Amino acid sequence: MTSAPKTFRVKSFGCQMNVYDGERMAELLGANGMSAAGEGEDADLVVLNTCHIREKAAEKAYSDVGRLRREDGSKPLIALAGCVAQAEGAEAQKRSPMIDVIVGPQAYHRLPEMVAQAVRGGRPVDTDMPAISKFDAFPKRKRANPSSFLTIQEGCDKFCTYCVVPYTRGAEVSRPWGDIVAEAYELVETGAREVVLLGQNVNAWSEDGRGFADLIRELAQIDGLERIRYTTSHPADMTDALIAAHAEVGKLMPYLHLPVQSGSNRILKAMNRSHTVETYLATLAKMREARPDIALSGDFIVGFPGETEEDFTATLNLVDEVGYASAYSFKYSPRPGTPAATMEDQIAPEVMDERLQRLHERINTHQTAFNRATVGKETEVLIERKGRYPGQMIGRTPWLQSVHVETDAVPGDIVSVSLVSAGPNSLAGVIPAKAAA
Ligand code: SAH
Ligand code: SF4
Ligand code: F3S
């Protein structure tokens, strides 16, 4: 028996959906009488909201658990949440006896009750995927970020051969239309100017014949909501209706994150991706026709089992052909229980390292080129937070570029900025009046 926790800290790893869940868990704990521990302060309860997508992420979670032991030998109450919790279940407590509570991504509504059980000496585990929605249990928000996440869809039915998500997040489920719209209003009323719609396959959202594009058009009606973004999309669900929305809905930002994973059709097939390089490029071409200034982004895996130098070269060629504004690349990581983990011809780590390095360089070149091409433009920037220096603020352009600018504007303001210089990851801007002076 320990005393009931008064303060908590939630640490989220992995994708934006985990960030969203982490924020909602924090609100839920707050509504149950706990308060967030201050920076650098010991918390009575620590929630580690983990990611299982690649090996290192899970290892990191376990080492983080270990590091929660305090100098005097005591430890906070520890709840393991997220995808490692879902995948490992009670096993995680065997691997790390310091863990008190194990709660999977669909069971967060039970977190306060499970913490109370742990206080009484229990070691509760809940990795069920119940029909009732965790979303209903989350309390109303008090304050939203200028750019706020809103989860609209969870789970994945695609079963790419390398990926754990279908196992950790379950089948594709769309949140109800009415709940999403109500939450968007709540976000705007509490400070959001932009919502980022989230889902493992966000563009697969549907309800009673209505699709993702219909939902976007509905949200665009909300006064005070200025920008709509979404992530992550699957190429198979890029409908013409969604592409048309990019041409017609001004609030829908000109940015598309559309992971392709490889530039080789042979590898794409082995990955069980349902697209080919040709169908992927055709989708992007339609998108560029609808919205010529669209910034394109993607994900790549290097070193998938059987990947030859020729396959990898095809990936580099695809990067050149698309000219990504940004892209993420990962070394293939075998995940237990996935088909690719037992495929022949696993690629040697040195080969993966070397390919990743080459891909990084290639992507970097395009990112820098994209950013440089916007220098000289005047564009709207949504101010999100303070920068490192006094008077400096950081915000984002419609193309999701990060911009540093000296201004009196506060988070949530949308200001006109002249872009004056660019690096691979961010730009510097000035307020136009100053530029003229
Ligand atoms: N649903 C999204 C991606 C979710 S996972 C989609 O299909 O595009 C985010 C990214 O992690 C993936 O796009 C992929 O590039 C990477 N990833 C997933 N499993 C991986 C693995 N086993 N090894 C390395 N990277 C992986
Ligand atoms: Fe994973 Fe593929 Fe589903 Fe994306 S579409 S979450 S990569 S299984
Ligand atoms: Fe990671 Fe789970 Fe997201 S595995 S990427 S936290 S869905």
UniProtKB/TrEMBL annotation:
Q: Where is the TRAM domain?
A: 372-433
- SUPFAM superfamilies on file: Radical SAM enzymes
How many cofactors are bound and how?
Answer: Binds 2 [4Fe-4S] clusters. One cluster is coordinated with 3 cysteines and an exchangeable S-adenosyl-L-methionine.
**Enzyme nomenclature, EC number:** 2.8.4.3
Question: Which parts of the sequence bind [4Fe-4S] cluster 1?
Answer: 15, 51, 83
Localization in the cell: Cytoplasm
Q: Which residues form the Radical SAM core domain?
A: 142-369
Q: Where does [4Fe-4S] cluster 2 bind?
A: 156, 160, 163
Catalytic activities: N(6)-dimethylallyladenosine(37) in tRNA + (sulfur carrier)-SH + AH2 + 2 S-adenosyl-L-methionine = 2-methylsulfanyl-N(6)-dimethylallyladenosine(37) in tRNA + (sulfur carrier)-H + 5'-deoxyadenosine + L-methionine + A + S-adenosyl-L-homocysteine + 2 H(+)
Q: The MTTase N-terminal domain covers which part of the protein? A: 6-120
Keywords of the record: 4Fe-4S, Cytoplasm, Iron, Iron-sulfur, Metal-binding, S-adenosyl-L-methionine, Transferase, tRNA processing
GO molecular function term, any single one: tRNA-2-methylthio-N(6)-dimethylallyladenosine(37) synthase activity
Pfam families (UniProt xref): Radical_SAM, TRAM, UPF0004
Cofactor(s), names only, from the UniProt record: [4Fe-4S] cluster
**Which InterPro entries does the entry mention?**
Elp3/MiaA/NifB-like_rSAM, Methylthiotransferase, Methylthiotransferase_CS, Methylthiotransferase_N, Methylthiotransferase_N_sf, MiaB_methiolase, rSAM, rSAM_horseshoe
NCBIfam families attached to this UniProt entry: miaB-methiolase (TIGR01574), MiaB/RimO family radical SAM methylthiotransferase (TIGR00089)
Function of this protein?
A: Catalyzes the methylthiolation of N6-(dimethylallyl)adenosine (i(6)A), leading to the formation of 2-methylthio-N6-(dimethylallyl)adenosine (ms(2)i(6)A) at position 37 in tRNAs that read codons beginning with uridine.
Assembly behavior: Monomer.
Hey, which family's this protein in?
Belongs to the methylthiotransferase family. MiaB subfamily.
State what protein this is by name. tRNA-2-methylthio-N(6)-dimethylallyladenosine synthase
Give the originating organism: Sphingomonas daechungensis
This chain is encoded by the gene named: miaB
